[in-house]
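Appendix C: a fully annotated inverse folding record. The material below is reproduced so that readers can follow the format used throughout the book. The structure is listed first as tokens, followed by the designed sequence.
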């Protein structure tokens, strides 16, 4: 096993009884000259080649290629300098549509293209060595794009991510249109089952092997999403605990602490990174929306990104695919709201979520290992 770039991070290994990164042995000797200064000089694909060179013939292997791209920050104007046309950008309706946002999205695309290039080179290396058709290749992301009302939220722009899996010897009848919901946690039992081992009963996720084998299943009709603390951006390191159920037609969110700032406090002094609304990475889009949040046409979008949220949110995805209008509390949606709430809480009880079934709830007091630039900032210790 090996990795390059970002493996398991941030955190400390010793408290978990480990001395090495769970992703494996680090490979980091290769560098390159990126076209843009915001892109790291790590040659991820080159490091993967070094790993493959070290693998003995006929030995199973697992490699984690974790690029920093498209993490913030981006080089301002990089997208336009590559010849991309701002006029052709499709701007999500959760953002204002102007030159600043369009340029920011183009810069984001540049970083994604760099990632795509690394994946392309890695796949070419597998093919050259004759490993490609017997290797499970998974390309995905851990969260949505680093923009307001996206990353670190339970809305689609924050939780819905790409997932491409290639395994010619294991996936039957390719080209099928499968509408089942998949969780990233499903990858763990999938890998275990693909390796011929038994999936531990403690795992609540579901293997994808039945989908791979073209079996007819109809039990993946919803996705369950959760967040506690992403960044240290509230006083004492508190999080914003929330849970959600996403079906084809509705997104229902339950916020356990609606009195807290969902995107982080507006006061940078209580943020570990000394920025306001610290769940949202600093960017031209965020800065513009903050500076213009009182202007007509922007105020509503800014409030959706930075403002407080009620305990319950419900979005009708057929009428409102980008989740801009919370219909929770409306009489005509009361039955739907009740049904989705029950569906979510039944799942939380089944999976023994301590927010629902009781017991120790210590997430607000977990150690914080992210960057701290605010003097004296620390997580409040739990009182005995």
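Designed amino acids, in order:
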């Amino acid at each position: 096993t090996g990795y390059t770039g970002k493996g398991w991070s941030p955190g400390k290994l010793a408290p978990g009884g480990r001395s090495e990164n769970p992703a494996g042995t680090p490979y980091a000797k290769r560098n390159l000259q990126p076209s843009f200064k915001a892109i790291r000089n790590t040659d991820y694909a080159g490091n993967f080649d070094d790993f493959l060179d070290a693998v003995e013939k006929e030995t199973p292997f697992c490699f984690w290629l974790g690029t920093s791209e498209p993490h913030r920050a981006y080089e301002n104007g990089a997208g336009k300098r590559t010849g991309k046309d701002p006029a052709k950008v499709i701007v999500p309706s959760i953002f204002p549509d102007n030159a600043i946002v369009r340029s920011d999205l183009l810069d984001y695309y540049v970083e994604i293209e760099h990632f795509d290039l690394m994946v392309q080179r890695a796949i070419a290396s597998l093919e050259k060595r004759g490993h490609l058709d017997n290797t499970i290749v998974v390309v995905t992301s851990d969260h949505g794009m680093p923009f307001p009302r996206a990353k670190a939220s339970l809305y689609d722009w924050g939780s819905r991510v790409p997932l491409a899996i290639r395994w010619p010897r294991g996936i039957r009848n390719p080209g099928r249109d499968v509408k089942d919901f998949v969780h990233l946690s499903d990858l763990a039992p999938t890998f275990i089952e693909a390796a011929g081992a038994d999936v531990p009963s403690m795992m609540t996720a579901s293997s994808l092997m039945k989908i791979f084998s073209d079996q007819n299943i109809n039990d993946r009709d919803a996705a369950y999403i959760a967040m506690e603390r992403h960044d240290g951006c509230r006083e004492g390191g508190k999080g914003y605990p929330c849970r959600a159920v996403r079906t084809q037609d509705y997104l229902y969110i339950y916020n356990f602490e609606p009195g807290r700032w969902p995107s982080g406090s507006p006061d940078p002094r209580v943020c570990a990174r000394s920025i306001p609304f610290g769940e949202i990475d600093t960017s031209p889009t965020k800065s513009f929306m903050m500076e213009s949040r009182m202007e007509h046409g922007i105020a509503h979008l800014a409030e959706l990104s930075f403002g407080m949220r009620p305990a319950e949110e419900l979005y009708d995805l057929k009428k409102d695919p980008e989740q801009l209008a919370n219909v929770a509390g409306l009489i005509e949606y009361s039955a739907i709201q009740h049904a989705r709430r029950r569906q979510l809480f039944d799942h939380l009880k089944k999976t023994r979520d301590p927010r629902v079934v009781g017991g120790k709830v210590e997430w607000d007091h977990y150690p914080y290992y992210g960057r701290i630039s605010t003097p004296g900032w620390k997580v409040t210790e739990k009182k005995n």
